């Protein structure tokens, strides 16, 4: 079965690299769109059904732009994100929500123009559990749309908080992970009733109950991924297939942690080498049979088969300079 992926190469001479897994099991680059240091990319359909690529770029100033995947031509933007270290965005129809990590802000780009910016506050109080080097101010790390598309959730690593906004970025609610854990990315359960949030600094997953009617989260327990250094775990990404969760651990671990949920909570099942160093972003294919992993520091893009039991087995890899994120075509 032929599989295709788009991998963001975050290098000055990098870009969106389109790769294909052939019937022979070998990964090969087919084309690329040259981009300057893409921090996050997403694929979506344009109004005429064409495949488009959205990209957050570390240019000066930092911007969001869109490209036609077939021609490589820019078709939208660039629009400044009005912040520093734009690291993630979520797109829904004409709205783009971008997270600026270093400046601790989230911006709404609506119909091609900056619409609203929300600057997250400084921490209200000091806590001995908080990491002074990483949590002295707000650090927005991900924007995530609720399953019904009514709300925008923003994970703030610096504040240990998930902020919930409406589509116009008006505040709705907020919820916290344990102090010092540093929430980074999150994923909704397939039935939309729960949210699992991965915390980078502690290497933990916090389960929240999601109230879709009013856009509120209720914390319902936290599970450690048992990293070698709990004070600097360097967890990065979380993805879901049914009852199986997969989390990447960088630092000393360089592994993918497999967890299961049985309705009573999460439990760690196994750990698998990521196939390189610094596994940052991952994605599961639509059929749930393949996990794609970006090992940023070793320039390794790796594919793992996902067994019926959820266990992983590496079966293909290729070199891509500084791979940061990946989507399936």
Describe this structure as you would to a colleague.
It is a single chain. The chain has 329 residues and is an all-beta fold. The chain has a domain at 81-224: YVTN repeat-like/Quinoprotein amine dehydrogenase (Methylamine Dehydrogenase, Chain H), CATH 2.130.10. It is 0% helix and 58% strand. The protein is built from no helices and 28 strands. It has strands spanning 3-9, 15-21, 27-34, 38-45, 51-57, 63-68, 74-80, 86-92, 95-100, 105-110, 113-119, 140-145, 151-156, 161-166, 171-176, 183-188, 194-199, 204-211, 216-224, 235-241, 244-249, 255-261, 266-273, 279-284, 290-295, 300-306, 312-319, 323-328. Strands 3-2-1-28 form a 4-stranded antiparallel β-sheet, with no helix packed on it. Strands 4-5-6-7 form a 4-stranded antiparallel β-sheet, with no helix packed on it. The protein has a 4-stranded antiparallel β-sheet with strand order 8-9-10-11, with no helix packed on it. Strand 1 and strand 2 (15-21) form a beta hairpin. The radius of gyration is 19 Å and the shape is globular.
Annotate the secondary structure layout:
Blueprint: E1 3-9, E2 15-21, E3 27-34, E4 38-45, E5 51-57, E6 63-68, E7 74-80, E8 86-92, E9 95-100, E10 105-110, E11 113-119, E12 140-145, E13 151-156, E14 161-166, E15 171-176, E16 183-188, E17 194-199, E18 204-211, E19 216-224, E20 235-241, E21 244-249, E22 255-261, E23 266-273, E24 279-284, E25 290-295, E26 300-306, E27 312-319, E28 323-328
């Amino acid at each position: 079965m032929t599989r295709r992926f788009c991998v963001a190469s975050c290098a000055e001479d990098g870009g969106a690299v389109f790769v294909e897994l052939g019937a022979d099991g070998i990964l090969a680059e087919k084309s690329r769109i040259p981009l300057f240091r893409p921090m996050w990319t997403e694929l979506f359909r344009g109004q005429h059904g064409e495949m488009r690529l959205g990209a957050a770029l570390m240019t000066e100033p930092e911007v969001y732009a869109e490209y036609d995947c077939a021609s490589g031509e820019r078709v939208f933007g660039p629009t400044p994100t009005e912040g520093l270290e734009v690291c993630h965005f979520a797109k829904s129809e004409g709205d783009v929500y971008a997270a600026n990590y270093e400046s601790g802000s989230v911006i709404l780009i609506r119909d091609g123009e900056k619409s609203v910016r929300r600057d997250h506050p400084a921490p209200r109080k000091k806590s001995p559990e908080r990491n002074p080097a990483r949590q002295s101010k707000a650090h927005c790390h991900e924007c995530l749309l609720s399953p019904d598309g009514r709300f925008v959730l923003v994970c703030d690593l610096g504040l240990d908080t998930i902020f919930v906004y409406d589509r116009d970025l008006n505040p709705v609610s907020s919820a916290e992970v344990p102090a010092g854990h540093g929430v980074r990315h999150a994923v909704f359960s397939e039935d939309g009733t729960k949210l699992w949030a991965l915390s980078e600094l502690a290497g933990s997953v916090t389960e929240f109950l999601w109230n879709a009617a009013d856009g509120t989260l209720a914390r319902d327990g936290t599970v450690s991924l048992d990293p070698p250094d709990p004070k600097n775990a360097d967890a990065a990404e979380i993805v879901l297939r049914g009852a199986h969760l997969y989390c990447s651990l960088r630092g000393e671990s360089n592994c993918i942690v497999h967890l299961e949920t049985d309705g009573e909570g999460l439990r760690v099942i196994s750990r698998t080498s990521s196939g390189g160093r610094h596994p940052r972003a991952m994605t599961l294919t639509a059929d749930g049979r393949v996990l794609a992993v970006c090992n940023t520091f070793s320039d390794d893009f790796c594919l793992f088969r996902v067994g019926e039991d959820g266990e992983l087995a590496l079966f293909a890899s290729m070199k891509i300079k500084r791979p940061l994120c990946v989507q399936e075509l």
